[in-house]
Write a structure and sequence with these properties.
Length: about 270
């Protein structure tokens, strides 16, 4: 794999054009309304004492800066901005055949409405820039990582029980192969073999979709160890359920599970 930044670089996916005006990739402008929402707005949302909205734009110049509010960046392929006070815009590099996180969130919301997840405001694929944009309602809360030292023993046990139950519930959804929620390949870098030297580091690599037999052959190819038997069904799992992806309330309860981009059906073993 060759280290190679996406163009424009991921930091420039959301660019600042003015105090309350953002260029989002090559397709949309995001503005704070000074009056009524324009009729050609594709979506709008409340933000304190005002509203933001998205409109399609044409003939936009390539972005030349990064907008204020960059709150997270993961290497060359992912970044998150706070837009106003009520939403975040999550940008990730994309390849054809890759499932959008918004589709995964829609699946979880429909099958497991009791599991708290972010609310999707709008999402789209920016094909010219090879990236996805996802606008989510911002969730107030501490990550489990930051809150853990201040939790009581009882709060830690309650939180662990809740998360374990969510995992059991998700695993009740099954499929016949290794795949995403809607049948695409999965984003699981820890299961991917090393890429060719010419593969750009920014470019996501999809695993599958694989049938059971294809999954068994793949595991045999990437490891000298004998793989555990794979059953007839694959079970749905978040696949990145670390302490930074669990948000808690002030009293230690689970407020939301975030970052579902790697979720999919995996072997139970």
């Amino acid at each position: 794999m060759v280290f190679c930044k996406a163009f424009p670089i991921i930091d420039f996916s959301v660019s600042q054009l003015g105090p309350d005006t953002y260029q989002m990739g090559s397709k949309f402008l995001c503005k704070k309304a000074t009056g009524e929402i324009p009729q050609n707005a594709v979506v709008s949302w409340e933000d304190g004492d005002g509203q933001y909205y998205l409109v399609e734009a044409t003939d936009m110049n390539p972005p030349v800066n990064t907008a204020e509010g960059l709150i997270h960046q993961a290497g060359t392929s992912s970044a998150v901005w706070a837009i106003g006070t009520q939403v975040v815009c999550k940008v990730k590099t994309w390849v054809s055949g890759m499932e959008r996180e918004s589709d995964t969130l829609a699946f979880v919301a429909s099958r497991f409405p009791h599991i708290p997840i972010p609310e999707v405001i709008y999402s789209w694929v920016d094909e010219p820039l090879n990236r996805t944009f996802l606008i989510l309602r911002r969730i107030q809360g501490q990550t489990l990582l930051s809150a853990w030292p201040s939790l009581t023993t009882e709060q830690k046990a309650d939180m662990a029980t809740t998360v374990a139950q969510y995992c059991r519930d998700l695993s009740e959804a099954t499929a016949e192969g290794l795949q995403s929620a809607t049948g695409c390949g999965v984003l699981e870098p820890f299961l991917n073999v090393e890429e060719e030297e010419s593969h750009p580091s920014w470019k996501p690599t999809l695993l599958g979709p694989f049938s059971r037999i294809a999954t068994e052959k793949y595991f045999q190819r990437i490891s000298p160890l004998m793989p555990s038997p794979i059953g007839d069904r694959f079970h749905f799992y978040h696949a990145d359920l670390g302490p930074t992806n669990i948000l808690l309330t002030d009293d230690g309860a689970v407020r939301a599970i975030i970052d579902w981009e790697s979720a999919g059906y995996f072997p139970k073993c």
